[in-house]
Specification:
With 246 residues, this protein is mainly alpha-helical. The protein has helices spanning 2-13, 19-50, 58-68, 71-103, 115-138, 145-167, 173-182, 184-198, 207-235.
Amino acid sequence: MLFQAAFAAWRQVLSRPFRTILWRSIALTVALLALVWFGLTRLFSYYLQGHPVSSQYPILDGFAFFLAGAGLFVALAYVLPAVSALVAGYFLDDAAEIVERSDFPQDPPGRALPTGQAILYGLRFAGLSLLVNVIALMLFFVPVVNVVAFFGANAYLLGREYFELAALRFRSPEEAGRMRVEFRPTVLLAGAMMAGLVLVPVLNLLTPLFGIALMTQVHKRLSARALPDRRRSRSLPRVEPGSRPR
């Protein structure tokens, strides 16, 4: 099911109806990354001017020198999940509506989230993602651990937040959270696909739209799977303790 959802999501991202949203999302992602780049370069320049190499914090100095050079590209890769959350919150309803209308026309359409609420969810996730990825960035020079920390943290965060964003078009926040927990392995694997995409240069700019399309597919398919199970469980005769079913 998950691979079918991923294939359908890629087909949607590259389709004609998505084209306008695609270019707008890439433009917004690049603009936000450029803003982060500018802020980080100014921050590191200020730090290095005020803290010579002979300061009492050699580890911080070395880390700052690394990030002030080519290492800044590494820092942007760690910031990208947070940036993608903001972009996803902004384009959520437009992209999800296209997926629902084209691939699930027989189902009732989702309820558009108020723009402020969608952006608020994106900001909440962006803050959490930024905090977690800054911690993961500190482990960059630890072999193996750095990759595991980055991939594992983002697989969980991306899966959790994008799934709940897609589910909120049909469910309350509490119901969306419960469904995510109920199907945790599937949501985590979908998040791992997105975390893998983040590691691919250039293609990682598609993370917001791919994430929305993927999790819309996953939520709709899991909802269709869960509904027959609930109906079947309600139709089963109730057996009292100590009695034998007829």
